[in-house]
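Quick one:
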Amino acid sequence: MLSGRRLDLLDPSPFDVEIEDIAHGLARVARWNGQTVGDHAYSVAEHCVLVESLVRKLEPSVTASDRLAALLHDAPEYVLGDMISPVKSALGPEYSALEKRLEAAVYLRFGLPPHPTSALKRTMKRADRISAYFEAVQIAGFEPDEAKKFFGTPPAAMRLKLKPLPAVEAQEAFLDRFHKLAAAKARAERQGA
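Output:
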């Protein structure tokens, strides 16, 4: 990693996970395999920031810890890349296990449970599908009806406007959101203690 850490992909340690490495990697991993309109690829970092904001809108009472988990939901992609679901399925359970080990290392590194609860997973999945719908229609060339077939219909009142950012700006946006959520999580823990 650019931080100088050596991350063992087969047995990742939370001690080798750095947020700067995650932000740098995710800001340079393109969603939709880079097949998007605009001067810049739409990055996984931008997607993560969007999913976190959607989780907050879908479940306004969600905790700062849960919002941090939502922001980090695709963190393993900082080393694995963004693979579409059919490819993940074709690679089999070994790939899924690798992804889960990386997820656990990331979450543990930032003081979260190693895996989200079922309820949080459902909310994140819903937010992920809403994000994918808007990404598909606005930047990946899908017609609305085609996107609805794959990702479902987003809430009628929900309006999003996506504009892919340069990698450095996406990285900064991700880090800014991370630091705000980490601070909110720390405040909540101090108040609860």
